[in-house]
Amino acid sequence: MESHGDEGEPSAMAKPPKKLPMSRKGFGTRGQSIQLLTNHFRVSVRRMDGHFYHYHVEVKYEDGGPVEAKGVCRRVVDKLQETYASELAGREFAYDGEKGLFTAGALLQTKHQFVVVMEDASSSGRTTTRRSPGGDDGSPGGSDRKRMKRPMAVKKFMVEISFAAKVPMSAIAEVLRGQETENSMEALRVLDITLRQHSAKQ
């Protein structure tokens, strides 16, 4: 594993341009009014004085080719978190399966490079059969078969995690109050990824 940088947070960051919410001119006046039932759940966030840290993730095969399958990327990042827990300060991840990873605190460095070794599940469990000498001549050993499991194949993946931005937790509370800010969309993304990942692991 290689790490670069002296701090988990860069000293200077470019601020995104401010966006003003679009004002609504009014409500619909034509057609039939109906009521809709949606799967809406109330969400509350206790801590509002901290930040979410957004990191950019690159997952590659050993030959440098990019890994594009979300399922593979998720398994690799899960294995990374398990293998390098101390190097990552024990941080829990919210990962979207592609390029985005969020933590509730900064990692130890602004840039990390890891090698993750995974067992290739596609080759596991395969067996071959081997007949004993005298296979088909009616001898006692003819019906004996030995099941031989092939050795598990392993694959190496290269993972690079680099700091991208900070998202104030207070932006989530503002969104829940219906107030749009420059961090609203990113805050909603963090919340969505976190809830999806939590639900998937239940």
Automatic annotation (TrEMBL):
It comes from the Eukaryota. Residues 120-132 have a biased composition (Low complexity). Residues 32-195 form the Protein argonaute N-terminal domain. Residues 1-26, 120-149 are annotated as: Disordered. This is Protein argonaute N-terminal domain-containing protein. It comes from Oryza glaberrima (African rice).
